[in-house]
Design brief:
Growth Hormone, Chain: A; 0% strand; 426 residues; globular; mainly alpha; disordered N terminus; 81% helix
Length: 426
């Protein structure tokens, strides 16, 4: 018979089950991989000026590499979803880290624009999509149910942590060793991650929690819509449009932010640190948004998030009139607390709509909207700068895109009604 103290201990800690601990492990793995995926892509913002300077390329031409990258992320998201549904998470993470290790190791040896399109644009984008949000969304939806929005917010928020860590770090690499070696060092990071991925317990990770309605059978989800059925629904295209329009606005601003702050008189390291701080705050913002979406209607929470983004863009624009610490604070806080914050909301709603055998593929297909939107935003913002010689047209263009994304939350009936229905009574 157990001693009473032992019995009390077991009762107090009964909620700490192996399944719960594995869920935390999965959340940590997804967070790290998402951070590396997004962080590596965002380092292009600090490669922008060195590449333009060394090769004499126009800003729009260099920015178009990032556009190719984001298109590849979008298309790669669909491929990532399809391979996840068929081959599982282990394949995604091994294949993705291998591509990233090779691509970034080769990038420092490139000398022509088309080579950057192929290696960083296509290779980097495909690798990032294989280890990024699609497997994160799919794995977390198997392990979390009632608190899925909060769990997804942590996964999404890790993107900001990756930006905060890698962007300033790569700027230090560039300052100390040049952009060629900086690319090589990033490649080494992914080579180490590839080795670590080999030894992770993927069978357990892929299974899901026993009491989760989206758990798998023999590692594969069952039931629900497939991708072909999903694309025939209005809800899918509403989610696609929100991803796309929001990405146009956010990525159109983010790629130019470092260069813009340097133009306004900040040093390269100060600008990179400010941009990294935006990434850090996005971690906080996504978590807060995910938690808020558990208590209030999701379209209301999303609307507040969009207003923060617009305030951040307005602060950047006003820096042309006066350089003031308050404007820098509003830019960092506004965009930091809102960048990516709509993602957990959209993904939670999609998990409810499309739970089943095609969920990862549907996530991936919807994320094409984000990839295409990010590519358009980055390219058009750079083009508008080259055409006008200033950033005002780009600021206006990105603001209009964000307003359109906000509008879709309100006018697509399935999205608005689901967002209201999922808000708990208070």
């Amino acid at each position: 018979m157990l001693h009473p103290l032992c019995s009390d201990f077991r009762l107090k800690h009964a909620s700490i089950t192996p399944s719960l601990l594995t869920g935390f492990l999965v959340l940590a793995i997804c967070g790290v991989m998402t951070a590396l995926s997004r962080g590596a892509g965002e380092t292009f913002s600090v490669f922008l000026l060195p590449l333009s300077s060394d090769f004499g390329w126009e800003r729009a031409s260099v920015a178009s590499v990032y556009s190719v990258y984001m298109v590849s992320v979008g298309i790669g998201s669909l491929l990532a979803g399809m391979t996840f549904d068929r081959l599982g998470a282990r394949f995604n993470y091994l294949f993705g880290t291998l591509i990233l290790a090779v691509s970034y190791s080769l990038a420092g040896k490139l000398g022509h624009l088309w080579q950057f399109y192929l290696v960083i644009g296509v290779g980097g984008g495909l690798g990032a999509s294989m280890i990024g949000l699609v497997p994160t969304q799919s794995l977390l939806s198997r392990w979390y149910n009632k608190r899925l929005s909060a769990a997804l917010s942590v996964g999404y928020a890790s993107q900001g942590l990756g930006t905060l860590m890698l962007v300033p770090l790569v700027q230090v690499f560039i300052d100390s060793s040049g952009w060629q070696n900086a690319y090589r060092y990033v490649g080494w990071i992914f080579a180490v991650v590839f080795v670590l991925v080999l030894f992770m317990p993927w069978r357990v990770i892929s299974a899901g929690a026993a009491d989760n309605p989206r758990k798998t059978k023999d590692g594969r989800a069952v039931g629900g819509m497939d991708l072909r059925q999903a694309v025939r629904t209005r809800a899918f295209w509403g989610f696609f449009g929100i991803f796309g329009a929001t990405a146009v606005g956010i990525f159109g601003i983010s790629l130019q932010s470092v260069a813009y702050l340097i133009d306004r008189g900040y040093s390269e390291l100060e600008a990179a640190f400010a941009f990294g701080t935006v990434g850090m705050l996005s971690f906080v913002g996504m978590v807060l948004t995910g938690v808020a979406a558990e208590f209030w209607p999701k379209h209301i929470v999303a609307s507040f998030s969009y207003s923060l983004s617009l305030a951040g863009i307005a602060a950047l624009a006003l820096m042309q009139i006066e350089i003031h610490p308050l404007l820098l604070f509003i830019y960092i806080a506004g965009l930091g607390l809102s960048s990516g914050a709509r993602g957990p909301i959209i993904t939670t709603l999609m998990a409810e709509f499309f739970a089943g055998r095609g969920l990862a593929s549907i996530y991936g297909a919807a994320n094409i909207g984000q990839g295409v939107g990010a590519a358009l935003g980055a390219f058009i913002a750079g083009l508008l700068y080259d055409l006008t010689g200033n950033y005002n047209a780009g600021f206006l263009f990105c603001s209009m895109a964000l307003l359109f994304g906000l509008l879709l939350f309100w006018i697509v009936p399935e999205i608005r009604h689901a967002a209201m229905a999922q808000a708990p009574e208070r």
